[in-house]
Specification:
single chain; alpha+beta; OB fold (Dihydrolipoamide Acetyltransferase, E2P); 2 domains; five-stranded mixed β-barrel; about 25% helix; about 25% strand; elongated
């Protein structure tokens, strides 16, 4: 009887530990993606802002982002470029960060701007495997 109860306790602890590991593994991916227009309406929760870097971003964003003040840049909605939001960010900036590039940054809205978590900025690279757009002329 003693070995059966020990086995049951060990099995229960293993299941609990396994559940905790799964919860921690997916915990970071539970943040919702938001566009600039959706982020402006947010309620202070953490989001992954997915947008396009608007024209006029700092040329030395990587250097500025490592200062105590950080860097501030504007992003625009992919579907509606008139919807914009300012992003305040501190941390590492990818080399591919530039105007017109799609980015994802994790953070929250505060005082009318999106405040990114340190080192959470990702810049998507344009795919060299995308097909080129062809233009046809009407004759």
């Amino acid at each position: 009887m003693k070995s059966k109860s020990r086995f049951a306790i060990a099995l229960g602890l293993a299941a609990l530990l396994g559940g905790a590991l799964v919860w921690m593994a997916i915990g970071g991916s539970l943040e919702t993606y938001a566009t600039p227009s959706q982020a402006m309406l947010s309620d202070g929760h953490t989001y992954r802002l997915n947008a396009i870097v608007a024209t006029g971003s700092p040329g030395d964003a990587a250097r500025q982002a490592l200062t105590p003040e950080g860097v501030v840049f504007t992003v625009q909605d992919k579907a509606d470029p008139t919807k914009t939001v300012k992003v305040a960010y501190k941390g590492l900036v990818p080399e591919t960060f530039q105007d017109g590039r799609e980015i994802v940054v994790t953070g929250h809205m505060a005082n009318g701007q999106f405040v990114g978590k340190r080192d959470s900025l990702l810049a998507k690279c344009p795919s060299k495997f995308q097909s080129k757009k062809t233009t046809t002329s009407a004759t």
